[in-house]
């Protein structure tokens, strides 16, 4: 097969499922075949896809594919450079599968619809200084929190990838940058094969035992940087195994799996039913008698007491007064 063009199979309308090991499989939807030329621009690529899919408007769709022999990470095609890389990666492949997927809503960092966003959820919460309306205000906040948690929980149930959409998008950006990097074993590696040198414009050292890179991006973000991903591709490992568990879809669902119970009525106190007494009795505070006499005043704190020095009104000196002044009276 020549390298000037590749055979692409467009997949649209289906959904992904992920197994316990992170392998993704696509099922359902429709399939269409097309040829992708190596000299195409991204605009020409989109135009050909639109023509193949009966002039479908692609403004709300994204294009993704798998790397050869890797069904755990979806790579995005969003510009001319991404398209050229896709053609280069699959130049020797008989068929390339391109998945046409609806874009996620990125207006919120957690990728949730507007009702689930905290800023939108609490924008309509009324503000009041009336004490009689505080309970209504608290109940309104509770309802908004319940709505936000339900919306995010339902949104996350449709996610099929190992990481949340926001984290997965960041990881894919690093994956797309890692293909041109050169990976070499470190000369002073004392742990076998877990320390590598990654060369681009500079040299960065990746230590897989300590989960760190000298660029510090992996340490700060919690997601592997492009240097670490280049090492994973060199050693045949998967980036998902080195991401913090807090970025996974499972932990996101666990965060919003609980529910908020209604607040009990604060006007009617809780009753304590005593079998020996009828009807029910209410708890009352202990009655105390006021002590006889005037309440004692607390003594002033000696640490903050400020003593004023005595000053003579005749000679203006300190340490004595006019009666004990020994300065002669001038005539």
Automatic annotation (TrEMBL):
Keyword line: Metal-binding, Zinc, Zinc-finger
GO terms of molecular function: zinc ion binding
Residue ranges constituting the SWIM-type domain according to the UniProt record: 204-236
Keyword Calcium: no
Cross-referenced Pfam families: PB1 (PF00564), SWIM (PF04434)
Protein name per its UniProtKB record: SWIM-type domain-containing protein
């Amino acid at each position: 097969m020549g390298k000037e063009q590749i055979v692409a199979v467009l997949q649209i309308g289906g959904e992904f499922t992920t197994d316990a090991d992170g392998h993704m499989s696509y099922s359902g939807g429709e399939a269409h075949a097309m040829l992708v030329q190596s000299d195409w621009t991204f605009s020409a690529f989109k135009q050909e896809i639109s023509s193949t899919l009966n002039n479908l408007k692609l403004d709300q769709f994204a294009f993704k594919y798998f790397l050869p022999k890797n069904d755990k990470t979806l790579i995005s095609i969003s510009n001319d450079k991404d398209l050229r890389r896709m053609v280069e990666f699959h130049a020797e492949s008989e068929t390339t599968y391109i998945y046409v997927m609806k874009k996620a809503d990125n207006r919120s960092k957690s990728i949730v619809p507007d009702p689930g966003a905290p800023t939108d959820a609490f924008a309509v919460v009324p503000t009041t200084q009336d004490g009689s309306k505080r309970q209504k205000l608290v109940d309104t906040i509770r309802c908004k929190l319940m709505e936000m948690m339900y919306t995010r929980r339902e949104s996350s149930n449709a996610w099929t990838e190992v990481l949340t959409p926001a984290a997965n998008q960041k990881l894919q950006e690093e994956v797309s940058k890692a293909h041109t990097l050169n990976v070499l074993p470190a000369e002073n590696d004392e742990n076998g094969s877990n320390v590598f040198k990654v060369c681009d414009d500079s040299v960065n050292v990746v230590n897989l035992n300590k989960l760190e890179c000298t660029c510090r991006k992996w340490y700060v973000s919690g997601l592997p940087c492009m240097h670490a991903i280049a090492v994973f591709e060199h050693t045949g490992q998967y980036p998902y195994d080195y991401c913090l568990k807090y970025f996974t879809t499972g932990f996101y669902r666990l965060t919003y799996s609980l529910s908020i119970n209604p607040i009990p009525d604060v006007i009617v106190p809780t009753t304590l039913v005593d079998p020996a007494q009828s009807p029910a009795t209410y708890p009352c505070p202990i009655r105390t008698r006021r002590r006889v006499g005037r309440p004692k005043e607390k003594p002033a704190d000696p640490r903050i007491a400020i003593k004023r020095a005595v000053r003579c009104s005749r000679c203006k000196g300190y340490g004595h007064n006019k009666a004990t002044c020994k300065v002669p009276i001038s005539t």
